[in-house]
Amino acid sequence: MKELFGSEPKPGAMQEDFQDITAEHLFGDIWTRPGLELQERSMITVTALTVLGREQQLKTHLRGAANIGISRKKINEMMIHLAHYGGWPVAVNGLRIAGEVFDEHEKNKK
Amino acid sequence: MKELFGSEPKPGAMQEDFQDITAEHLFGDIWTRPGLELQERSMITVTALTVLGREQQLKTHLRGAANIGISRKKINEMMIHLAHYGGWPVAVNGLRIAGEVFDEHEKNKK
Amino acid sequence: MKELFGSEPKPGAMQEDFQDITAEHLFGDIWTRPGLELQERSMITVTALTVLGREQQLKTHLRGAANIGISRKKINEMMIHLAHYGGWPVAVNGLRIAGEVFDEHEKNKK
Amino acid sequence: MKELFGSEPKPGAMQEDFQDITAEHLFGDIWTRPGLELQERSMITVTALTVLGREQQLKTHLRGAANIGISRKKINEMMIHLAHYGGWPVAVNGLRIAGEVFDEHEKNKK
Amino acid sequence: MKELFGSEPKPGAMQEDFQDITAEHLFGDIWTRPGLELQERSMITVTALTVLGREQQLKTHLRGAANIGISRKKINEMMIHLAHYGGWPVAVNGLRIAGEVFDEHEKNKK
Amino acid sequence: MKELFGSEPKPGAMQEDFQDITAEHLFGDIWTRPGLELQERSMITVTALTVLGREQQLKTHLRGAANIGISRKKINEMMIHLAHYGGWPVAVNGLRIAGEVFDEHEKNKK
């Protein structure tokens, strides 16, 4: 979780029980399973959030993707591909959010 | 397209104009773009089809995934991960279809 | 309703209360409102059912579309267009179902 | 409607015809049917809006839920449950909106 | 799980790891949490599956609902209500599946 | 594209490759195909975006619809119809956005 998001979630950021379940089950038990590289888990998470139109979580996971070294170019390419499976609008939104996230990410690195 | 599906689509399998657009635009122009490996395109396509519940196309693209060497173990792992982003039912369906596709694929290889 | 589907729904085809609400409210009050031609209502209904992946109802309403004189060519064109807004799979499914419906419709006319 | 939302909708809040249909058909004819308690109708409405990601209407109906005495604890529990059927993101959004609505509701009661 | 479905799942019914996660996490940790009655969990699960169009899982959970004593009348009423939040087609499908499940359930009881 | 949106898209409004694909493939090759009138393409695009809840693109295409002479009355009627196929919330959102777009459109014409 820290590797992906650069920090632990702030206390109070989520309802307490759900934060525990998320930390223990989703990030503790699922994201750490073998069989997929962290970058692969990040790519399929970004894909799912893009085509389902979950924009807030997409932003969070695009930040994660940038943190673990997935390039802006690769994300853009994913969005162009996904336009054809989830429809143009999900790619328009995905590319806009990716643009914001990577602009911010590159600014922070300087 | 042949690399992925093992054969060219049969004439008459789709409405003619749409088959042309699919062959030229989607498989000709988009799937061949640089920036993503073929296996990566396959993985994000399978992901999109899984969470959107497009079962018939998921079956086709899981066959493609098997053809280009993505393992059953990796697909299973993707489905377990996606249960948490698209809901349990999309993973139940995805794992069932993947089971059928990989059973068939392994039988054909013998 | 009869104009669209060629017959009244059979008793017992739907749960009774819901059939009444559908007949009175949806077909009685909504489909008969001025402001849209019957063909326009049919086109937007087919569009909604296509992109939402409601295949059974899509089949019913494609039969309705054929009954009121919307051509196979127009429906095909709609599906090709919608591939770009709802994703390729909804058009693949829509064109397949439209093919079945119009084949049947043309056979019945002879 | 007044029981649920604490007031009648303001004139002009919605397009006029649709406001009439909503008041007469949806709230007049459907919400008042026997067979489900008002609290049960509220719970399934909140559930549908959560998993479909209709955030604006979810906010309105969470206010309704609070007005008719459904507890914050119960809503939180529903969201944790729904994470597993609609995916984590719908629960994250649902819990955030529920947090805002119940904070406001408790403040207004004082 | 046994209370709801009348039996434990057959070995091999699901991919093994996912079956373990489902049994331990979803049915073990989540469905047993306090804060919602079993009937309430069943009702919101049925609601989510209905509006998301997950027909296979809906059938399974409608059987569960019947097993724990939720009446056909109540399920029908839920579907009529949900037509207005998820669209007519999800209710048409939900009522058809509920009809099959409750016919079977009543036959088995005799 | 210019006929629909009143202007060419600003450079930099979208990721460059995707803007090219959109201009050449979607607007160049698809929207210009015979078989559907421009107004019909606009109507089915608005319908798809409404029921899929793609609000930002819906706003853009409602502006397009107004530009090519589709009336506010017709759009309102479409939304009332679509409430019954995509659920009430998509119509509430669609009517709100249409209200904003047509208010702006009528103000600009004076």
Question: Would you kindly provide a written description of the structure presented here, covering whatever features stand out?
Answer:
The first copy, chain A, starts with a helix and ends with a helix. Chain A is built from 6 helices and no strands. The longest helix of chain A has 22 residues, at 88-109. In chain A, helix 3 packs antiparallel against helix 4, helix 4 (55-67) crosses helix 6 (88-109) and helix 5 (72-86) packs antiparallel against helix 6 (88-109). The mean pLDDT of chain A is 95. Chain A has 110 residues and is mostly helical. The interface between A and B is medium-sized, with 28 and 29 residues.
Characteristic terms for this protein:
homohexamer, 110 residues, mainly alpha
Short description:
Chain A has 110 residues and is mainly α. Chain A has 6 helices and no strands. The longest helix of chain A has 22 residues, at 88-109.
Largest interface (C-beta under 8 Å): A-B, 28 and 29 residues
Measured on Cα atoms, how large is the radius of gyration of chain A?
14 Å
Name the shape of chain A in a single word: globular
Largest sheet of chain A: none
Oligomer: homohexamer
H-E string of chain A: HHHHHH
Residue-averaged pLDDT of chain A: 95
Terminus-to-terminus distance of chain A: 24 Å
How many helices of chain A? The count is: 6
Helix content of chain A: over 70%
Count of individual beta strands of chain A: 0
Q: Uncertain segments of chain A of ≥5 residues (pLDDT<50)?
A: none
